[in-house]
Amino acid sequence: MSKPFFTGCCTALVTPFLNRQVNYPMLEQLLQKQLLAGMDVALVCGTTGESATLSDDEKLEIIRRAKAFVGDQMIIIAGTGSNNTAHAVTLSKAAQDAGADALLVVSPYYNKATPEGLVHHYLAIAHAVKIPIILYNVPSRTGVDMAVSVYRRLANIPNIIGVKEASGDIGKILRICAACPDSFTVWTGNDEMTVPAISLGAKGVISVAGNVYPEEMQNMAMAALDGDFDTAASLQRQLLPLTDALFSEVNPIPVKAAMKCIGFDCGGCRLPLTEASAETFDVLRQILI
Asked: Per the domain annotation, does 142 fall within a domain?
């Protein structure tokens, strides 16, 4: 059985802003928080990192600085997806050159590609880089739910190593694990499904809540991976108020508010996303303070 690229929790980091620019000193504070929690891997420039409103130059600078800060202490995964295949190829190659250890590539959004189109999109990217690629299925944002048959075909490509499955369909985790070889790893993209997903064969979670509670998310995931589902389920229940609150508005609006509550002022979101409502702040303060 091949070893997964990582197990447990990978935090999908927020991108901190100050005066509308990326706040690189705060980015280092966020990475340091992850390191102090004993985390092995982090994702930058993903959905939670507001990839849609970052320029390519900003993305590459974030990747360079993140990898330079953590060095060999942590794996850095970079989001490089696009609904333009040529752009995704160019950005993926540049991210590899900037120091990314692996790529998270969301399925093309808005275009609504066919299964055949999805396969060829990912093949173009995989053939352009040497580092590992993690597929990212999030139909609530892309408008397309990638079929298990697509995963089955792409699982044969050596540097396509798995999927962040954020469809919210717990049964799909089981179907992917049954259809694909052990070399193809499933990570859930839904914090509240971490323990049940692991029980069906997933190897962890790519997490929003890990920004706030990285150690707790890692402990929960590892307990489940170790087969201690009593402990894992208890931790999942304890974290439920937070994971619910973090999706009470569009991600990453609530998690940026949560980070402010715990002393990490990461600024607001770039338009078209806005600040968290007063009600969201109140709920988060009750949970976190």
From this structure: yes
For 242-262, what is each residue's pLDDT tens digit? 999 999 999 999 999 999 999
Q: Is there a domain that residue 240 lies in?
A: no
Is 172 catalytic? The answer is: no
Q: Identify residue 151 by its one-letter amino acid code.
A: Y
267 located within any domain: no
Q: What is the pLDDT of residues 27-75, one digit of tens each?
A: 999 999 999 999 999 999 999 999 999 999 999 999 999 999 999 999 9
Strands 8-12 and 204-207: parallel
Catalytic residue among 136, 151, 172, 256: 136
Q: Which residues contact 33 (CB under 8 A, 6 or more apart)?
A: 214, 264
For residue 103, the 8-state DSSP code is E
Domain total of the chain: 1
pLDDT digits (tens, 9 = 90+) for 133-181: 999 999 999 999 999 999 999 999 999 999 999 999 999 999 999 999 9
| pLDDT tens-digit series, residues 83-122 | 999 999 999 999 999 999 999 999 999 999 999 999 999 9
Looking at the chain, the number of H-run helices and the number of E-run strands are 12, 10
Does 136 qualify as catalytic in the annotation?
yes
pLDDT bucket at 2, cuts 50 / 70 / 90: confident
Res 1: pLDDT: 56
Domain assignment present for 258: no
Q: What CATH number did the domain enclosing 72 receive?
A: 3.20.20.70
Domain hosting 101: range is: 8-232
Cα dihedral 61, 66, 71, 74 sign: negative
Pick the catalytic residue: 59, 164, 172, 203? 164
Phi-psi region of 227 (alpha: psi -120 to 50; beta: other; left: phi over 0): left
d(CA 51, CA 45): 5
Report the C-alpha gap between 64 and 208 in whole angstroms: 22
**Sole residue written with tokens 């396969």:** 119
